[in-house]
TrEMBL record:
Protein's organism: Natronosporangium hydrolyticum
Cofactor binding mode and count: Binds 2 Zn(2+) ions per subunit.
Keywords carried by this UniProt record: Hydrolase, Metal-binding, Zinc
Similarity annotation: Belongs to the peptidase M20 family.
Cofactor(s) listed: Zn(2+)
Name of the protein described by the UniProt record: Allantoate amidohydrolase
Residues reported to bind allantoate: 214, 272, 285
One Pfam family of this chain: M20_dimer
Sequence positions that bind Zn(2+) 1: 78, 89, 189
Length: 403
């Protein structure tokens, strides 16, 4: 696999969903850009003679071999992005899967089991708020009735979004028979830190995913005039929010976790009005569940204390929570050895692989990211490293599919 060959296929996907102003990618689940990515996937699969199927939740598969066969080796990732995200988070795993199939075919490999490249729906949760939507629905980790009612910021429900895309919203839900036919799931992903740079390795293997989640913090106060309301008379939810953000930062640093407030909504969002309400989303992560629980509890208590002082009211509700994932140790060590003692590392980022790992022996490969940046346009991987990732993935798929 030459870097130029990786680039040639990569280039064909790159323009889809790119911000015309050059500020990253906007590929939200079931948006026009996402549908264009899905059409790209179908065309690429068909050009390779792979059979394309869709499950009840709109996750796509390109099959080499019988889709109804047992012990399938499935690889893949997601097309969707965070707002103004990078190009690699997600799509790299799908493009690498297609190129790995090409390599195996050229090597004359005949898989003893079905092999599939998968594209999972709405992994980032940027549109409907729940991360790993497609894989959670597939595994039964998310109630389809609740999922149908999720709405995007424009008020469009998930049910409406999937029906616009030609899917039956009533059919959303778990598919245990499908999962039972999978022997392995392998997700290749751009690294979202600099551990591989520090270790001088192009490819690594995941050991674990930190437990993490999203909490919706609603702070209600009293809307009022910015010019005429005495400072002492205010019940300003923005003040409570500001304090809560600082408290989250402090608690995360003290406890060795990560806390981020990357999204807020303010009502009525007027320069000259004390706000009536603020909604803030806390993203919290930690190396272990106890630390994560302690972190979120501490932030909640401190937000509530501050609300008492500000005369505001606060509620904190979990929106999507993911427990710790320890990837299959035997598989992990086997892949690391197969790849010449590749570094083994944990990550604080969530992945469909984490959701699937409770159902199928699962592993992840990471490709070095020289910037270490992710969920932002600066996310990067060189074509040389991406090509090395394809070779590593092909080697791993060959080993698993030919046993
Ligand atoms: C998924 O990309 C996450 O936010 O960790
Ligand atoms: Mn991501
Ligand atoms: Mn991802
Ligand atoms: Mn992410």
């Amino acid at each position: 696999m030459t870097p130029a060959r990786f680039r040639a296929l990569w280039q064909t996907l790159l323009p889809i969903g790119q911000d015309p102003a050059g500020d990253g990618w906007l590929r939200y689940g079931w948006s026009e850009a996402d549908l264009a990515c899905r059409a790209w996937f179908t065309a690429q699969a068909q050009a390779r003679g792979l059979q394309v199927t869709t499950d009840r939740n709109g996750n796509l598969y390109a099959w080499w071999g019988d889709p109804a066969g047992d012990g399938a080796v499935v690889t893949g990732s997601h097309f969707d992005s965070v707002p103004h995200g990078g190009a690699y988070d997600g799509p790299l795993g799908i493009v690498s899967g297609l190129l790995a199939v090409d390599l195996l075919a050229e090597r004359g490999v005949t898989p003893h089991r079905p092999l599939a490249v998968a594209a999972f729906a709405e992994e980032e949760g940027s549109r409907f708020g729940v991360a790993c939507l497609g894989s959670r629905l597939l595994t039964g980790a998310l109630d389809p009735a609740a999922a149908r009612k999720l709405t995007d910021p424009a008020g469009v429900s998930l049910a409406d979004a999937v029906s616009t895309a030609g899917l039956d919203p009533a059919a959303l839900g778990p598919e245990p028979e499908l999962l039972a036919r999978w022997g392995y799931f392998i997700e290749l992903h751009v690294e979202q830190g600099r551990a591989l740079v520090d270790r001088g390795a192009a490819v690594g293997v995941a050991s674990a995913i930190w437990p993490h989640g999203r909490w919706r913090i609603e702070i209600t106060g009293e809307g009022n005039h910015a010019g005429t309301t005495a400072m002492a008379d205010r019940h300003d939810p923005m003040l409570t929010t500001a304090y809560t953000v600082l408290a989250a930062n402090k608690e995360a640093r003290l406890r060795g976790g990560h806390a981020t407030v990357g999204r807020i909504e303010v009502a009525p969002n007027a320069t000259n009005a004390v706000p009536a309400r603020v909604t803030a989303w806390l993203d919290a992560r930690a190396p272990d569940q106890q630390t994560l629980t302690g972190l979120v509890e501490a932030v909640t208590v401190r937000a509530q204390d501050r609300a008492d002082r500000d005369g505001t009211a606060v509620t904190v509700a979990a929106e999507s929570v993911s427990p710790v994932v320890d990837f299959d140790v035997t598989l992990r060590d086997r892949l690391a050895a197969r790849l010449g003692d590749a570094p083994v590392l944990p990550t604080g980022a969530g992945h469909d692989a984490g959701v699937l790992s409770g159902h199928v022996p699962t592993a992840m490969l990471f490709v070095r990211n020289p910037t270490g940046v992710s969920h932002a346009p600066g996310e990067h991987a060189t074509d040389d490293d991406c090509a090395a990732g394809v070779v590593a993935l092909a080697d791993v798929l060959a080993e698993l599919a030919c046993q």
